[in-house]
Amino acid sequence: MQGWQVRNGIDGSATVHGSAFQAGEMTVHQYAAPAGAKVRWPVVVGRIPPKATAFQPRAELRQAIDEARGEYGTVVLSQVLAGGGGVGKSQLAAHYAREAVEAGTDLVLWADAAEPSAVTDLYARAAVAVQVPGASGEAAEQDAERFLSWLAATERGWLVVLDNTTEHTPEELWPVTSRGGRGRVIATTRHRGAASTGGDRRLVEVSTYSEAESLAYLSERLERAKCSRFLDEHAGELAEELGHLPLALAHAAAYMVNTRRSCGRYLELFRDRSRSLDTVLPARSGADGYRGPVTAALLLALDEAQQEEPVGLAGPVLGLAALLDPAGHPQELWGTEAVLEHLGRVRGGPVTADDALDALAVLHNYSLVTLTETADREVTLHALTARAALDIGPGTPEAGLAAADALVELWPSADYTAPDLAATLRANTDVLAGHSGADLVQPLTGIHQLLFSFGISLIEAGLYTSSVQYWSGLAAASERVLGIDHRNTLTSRNNLAAAYSDAGHTDDAIRLQEQVLADRQRILGPDHPSTLTTRNNLATAYRDAGRTDDAVNLLEQVLADRRRVLGNDHPDTLVARQNVAVIRSETGHVDVAINLLEQVLADRRRILDVDHPETLMARNNLATMYWEVGLRDQALEMLRQAVADLDRVLGPDHPDTVLAMGNLRALTPEPQPDAAQDSSSRSPSSEAEPGSAV
């Protein structure tokens, strides 16, 4: 490498001391060119960062970068590598710079573009190094202009890397033309706004490692440190927990090496949310050049984002988003009354939906959140960015309640009408409820409506095992905080019993329903709708357990009482009417059952909807009864239509669809009437009781 002529620039106009610097495995010597000396090509200007210890080549991402470059002619096409903190933008750019040096590119220049004056100074130094005509080394701005003109006119190949550009990087610092198309600019930035996509720039999104790249990094990094034994079966789980972020993986690997911890032991430490992010990912030497705190690296752009219009709103918006699912939440959340009122209180003035959306756009432009076109998950952010945001501004109870209220506002009146949205809201509720600042079970306000909506949604989605676990935990929490006789506690226990029944735990369901019924009769009275719901559920549990006589007697009582208290057309009464029809069919009174169920089906079509799941299941039940009395063709046609509609409305894997499909298979092509199943209905309580947060 000797004989190369190099100028080495650093921040501002500081003077470089020493005669050499390291670029990867190459030592490049620097010296000032004597007056009149001939330039000895190639020339390297600036300090190219050294190669990371376990650098991942990221072939797929480099292909996207190279394809972007292929669009240029004599106009310089700049590839702008954009992404949040710690995704490895600079390492990718450094890889291209080292490749260019190794390939003998005539000029490779690396500039830290965070400060425009430093770029100007480096351009001026480069002008002297390549002996641009007229460059004196005394007037930096004029020499920089001459250098840019030289880049446009020279036939020599060159690469200029502008590392860490911002929206304030002046346009005049970007090279724009190249004679013969032999010049190239690669820039890195956190900013994804118009400034990074203007002119002839092509934005290339730099995201996190793939799963394979994360595992390859950990394996190579630990192997180089002679610590391969720390790469255990939890490596993939750890990479997932770190969000495949190169910055986090580098710090985690350094921590494991320095503390002699395996992936599994480190994972336990990382998951301890009582520890801050900078505690579990401390700034240490040996983290592939990442020396500063992780939180600062991830949130570096937040102060600047706070100064953008609407001023002062980016921080509160990020703080609220950090409480939700990093994988995404609906953009509509930012137009809810709960969110806008909360942001207004924090900001100290009215906030409109447009203000909130503008703040989201600012955060997106600074790579702090990502706005996508994925339905119901339009707003995402990296999990570690969320954790860092909560470290510097812990989620307050007010923020948690605002987020909870907003999710309730978004929840569809019936999950089957928007199953994907319901699934997204469940994921966000799960994350929100896990934050210490979001206490949704409180002595004065009871259980927040969101927790009821979440649990009912689990049941409606057919996630019965999960619903048993959920309602068991909520019932225990309610009993502990509110007391065993609180109406929210009774509702939670009723819903746990309903979940037991759906999951096939009939004995547990009967035991708990009998307790809840006794308590509701004592506290609410025998005619309260909630008491009648528990009696209905207990009766269907008796039916599931084969206690037919008990089920018949109780269901008849429930139907009579619901008609008297609620009226014949109330949805709860329709449930009771269907259940009586099913039990009469099972006790041999099929003709009576058919007459009752035909009336129920007609009323459900009129009152609910032709596509309501309860309407569709009434058709399933009626079809099986038609089969029993010999109306085979009518039964099959009705059942086929019910299966098709259930598949369309609920999906093929929902338990109601599976039950109807099982009935259709049982009746064709070899009829087995005894195998067909009627469905009965039990009712969880979805509304918050008086005294709750909503």
Descriptive key words:
694 residues, alpha/beta, Rossmann fold, Arc Repressor Mutant, subunit A, 7-stranded parallel β-sheet, two-stranded antiparallel sheet, 13 strands, 52% helix, elongated, disordered N terminus, disordered C terminus
* Quaternary form: single chain
Using the alpha-carbon principal axes, give the shape: elongated
Number of strands: 13
Q: How do the strands of the widest beta sheet line up side by side?
A: 1-4-6-7-8-5-9
Q: For this structure, what is the CATH class of the largest domain?
A: Mainly Alpha
| CATH fold title of the largest domain | Serine Threonine Protein Phosphatase 5, Tetratricopeptide repeat
What does this structure look like?
This protein is α/β, with parallel strands linked by helices and 694 residues long. The protein folds into four domains: 201 residues, Rossmann fold (3-Layer(aba) Sandwich), CATH 3.40.50.300; 87 residues; 107 residues, Arc Repressor Mutant, subunit A (Orthogonal Bundle), CATH 1.10.10; 255 residues, Serine Threonine Protein Phosphatase 5, Tetratricopeptide repeat (Alpha Horseshoe). It contains 28 helices and 13 strands. The strands form four sheets. Strands 1-4-6-7-8-5-9 form a seven-stranded parallel β-sheet, with helices on both faces. A two-stranded antiparallel ribbon has the order 2-3. Helix 13 runs antiparallel to helix 16. The longest helix has 19 residues. The relative contact order is 0.06. The N terminus and C terminus are likely disordered.
Walk me through the topology:
Layout: E1 5-7, E2 20-23, E3 26-29, E4 43-45, H1 59-69, E5 78-82, H2 89-102, E6 107-112, H3 116-129, H4 140-153, E7 158-165, E8 183-189, E9 201-205, H5 211-224, H6 235-241, H7 246-259, H8 263-270, H9 277-280, H10 294-298, H11 302-306, H12 314-321, H13 337-347, H14 353-365, E10 370-371, E11 379-380, H15 383-392, H16 397-410, H17 419-433, E12 441-442, E13 446-447, H18 449-460, H19 464-482, H20 487-502, H21 506-523, H22 529-544, H23 548-566, H24 571-586, H25 590-607, H26 613-628, H27 632-650, H28 655-667
Parallel strand pairs: 1-4, 4-6, 5-8, 5-9, 6-7, 7-8
Antiparallel strand pairs: 2-3, 10-11, 12-13
Helix pairs in contact: 3-4, 5-6, 5-7, 6-8, 13-16, 16-17, 17-18, 18-19, 18-20, 19-20, 20-21, 20-22, 21-22, 22-23, 22-24, 23-24, 24-25, 24-26, 25-26, 26-27, 26-28, 27-28
